[in-house]
Write a structure and sequence with these properties.
By secondary structure, this protein is α/β, with parallel strands linked by helices. Strand 1, helix 1 (9-23) and strand 2 (30-34) form a beta-alpha-beta unit. The chain contains 10 helices and 4 strands. Helix 5 crosses helix 7 and helix 8 (163-169) packs across helix 9 (171-180). Helix content is 53%, strand content 10%.
Length: 193
């Protein structure tokens, strides 16, 4: 079984959808835990990975936004917080800037999740400084009220994403996609279904 940890509930739910989407196994059981920010994620991740391991999970993804830091720096921080215990079974996903950059990469997925919202094509979503704020601004209607809400729509958009399209525009997503599609993960998913 698989477990994902994210900075908040919305990120964790989005990761569940991404894992299912990438693996092609929509009924895959994926345990999740969202925290109240990156500091709490780093502080409590190890204890939650141990809890998920006790429930039978053998593969883990911890997702921590780069937030204007280098992905390598963030990966080192998370790895230091986890220690060596989950070195071989845990993947640390670091979206450049924020997870929302991955969502921006597929405008059709956004349109399917929010039919009244249509954004322009973005060729390099990881170059956007604050993707969440960019999405909020892009979703403002005539009455200035945003159509997009991260907590509501991120998991819905993630369920519709085209993994190949997002991987072609977002190198940080491409690494996650490759990890989920490795032989080890493929056999894990096929043994469950």
């Amino acid at each position: 079984m698989v477990a994902v940890l994210g900075e908040d509930r919305s990120d964790a739910e989005s990761l569940v959808e991404l894992v299912r989407n990438i693996s092609g196994r929509q009924n895959q059981t994926v345990f999740r835990k969202g925290f109240s920010g990156c500091a709490e994620l780093r502080r409590k991740a190890l204890s939650h990975l141990r809890l998920f391991q006790q429930k039978g999970c053998t593969r883990f993804i911890v997702c921590h936004d780069a937030d204007r830091s280098s992905p390598e720096h963030i990966r080192r921080l998370v790895r230091a917080a986890l220690g060596r215990e989950f070195m071989d079974t845990c993947f640390i996903a670091v979206p450049v800037q924020e997870l929302e950059a991955w969502l921006i990469a597929d405008r059709c997925a956004i349109k399917r999740a929010i039919p009244s919202m249509d954004i322009d094509e973005v060729r390099q979503p990881e170059m956007i400084d604050s993707p969440k704020e960019w999405l909020l601004e892009a979703s403002r209607g005539r009455n200035s009220k945003p159509l997009y809400s991260p907590t509501t729509f991120n998991p819905k958009v993630a369920a519709f994403l085209d993994p190949n399209m997002v991987a072609s525009k977002c190198p940080s997503f491409s690494v996650l996609k490759d990890f989920v599609q490795t032989e080890c993960w493929s056999s894990l998913f096929s043994s469950v279904n």
